[in-house]
Amino acid sequence: xxxxxLLQPVTKMNIQASIDHWVRPEIKALSAYHVPDxxxxxxxxxxxxxxxxxxxxxxxWLELLHKTNVNRYPDPQGAELKxxxxxxxxxxxxxxxxxxNGSDELxxxxxxxxxxxxxxxxxxxxxxxxYRMIALFAGMPYQGVPLKSKDFSLDLPALLAAIEQxxxxxxxxxxxxxPTGNLFTAADIRQIIKAAPGLVIVDEAYAxxxxxxxxxxxxxxxxxxxxxxxxKLGLAGLRLGLLAGPKPWLDEIDKTRLPYNINTLTQVSAxxxxxxxxxxxxxxxxxxxxxSQLSAALNGMDGVTPYPSDAxxxxxRMPASRANEIHAAxxxxxxxxxxxxxxxxxxxxxxxxxxxxxxxxxxAINALKAAL
Length: 372
Ligand SMILES: *Cc1c(COP(=O)(O)O)cnc(C)c1O
Known about the structure:
Elements: H1 2-7, H2 12-22, H3 25-28, E1 42-44, H4 55-66, H5 79-88, E2 96-100, H6 103-114, E3 121-125, H7 129-137, E4 142-146, H8 156-166, E5 170-174, H9 186-195, E6 199-203, E7 224-229, H10 231-235, E8 241-245, H11 247-254, H12 264-275, H13 277-299, E9 305-306, E10 313-317, H14 323-332, E11 335-339, E12 350-354, H15 358-371
Parallel strand pairs: 1-11, 3-4, 3-5, 5-6, 6-7
Antiparallel strand pairs: 2-8, 7-8, 9-10, 10-12, 11-12
Helix pairs in contact: 5-12, 6-7, 8-9, 13-15, 14-15
The chain binds pyridoxal-5'-phosphate.
């Protein structure tokens, strides 16, 4: 009876009983996404751009925000921003374009559009964990095909066999891949696109740090969508991702988008940033140089194995069974990197170091040397 329930005191006990009854078991089994406290640390764990904006640009931005009103709902289509993105990312003219609150939201929209208990999401492993997580949230079965252990390249025969067997609704390929940093072979990806019965999403989150891209192939394959984000470019705080692909497909996915998902401040600020793209080009150039220097320093170090990277981070294998201890010792020296040991068998003993400023990279090298 409702009135009886209302009269019951709310105790820890009946909250737990209610949770046990109602929360989906697969959600209850999860632990919440954990972001470690990084205050006071050199933050090289999350692939952020370490550079901020020059003061003059900041002033100009603040003047623009001063003229921006937030009493009205945002532009529902984000028309001006989309136009800017088309230019800056060379999105083919006839391609459809959909914006998300980060590319994470686009992954969620894809799931909402295609979900069903027999609709498989397929990706490679190790890769970006949100592909698997969001499949789980949406009740879609997930299949992960291991990368080759030697160099994290695609195991094409295994992938083609998995496609044949599972007939996936969605295949995700991060290009370059996170957390391994490598680019897969483009010809292999094209074979996967050809063999896939459903959508293939090429996730180009790290596009600013590589010259390779599938963007120019959007429209040439009926089932290819290319996903990008502004997060790794240097606008992680704005939360803006985009999906480009055949317009009829994006029109369907757009139906699952929450109205006004891109807030006014993000629309105005991102369009402003893209009007001053050269600032970000300079920053990404610096990060690319920093990557070469960091990689050379790691290569010269005894006992650690850095992997080649086309992204703004480097995956490094530590001496056997020492990753946890080295990660903690680096943290004690105020350098926070990502510990991937234990997250996937192929990542045993691995840390992932985001490329920072030259001074931050040097601090990471020093901390690692001291920890080894
Ligand atoms: C960081 C990352 C994203 C997430 O980007 P947001 O736009 O910040 O949600 C997507 N895909 C890959 C492969 C990433 O590494």
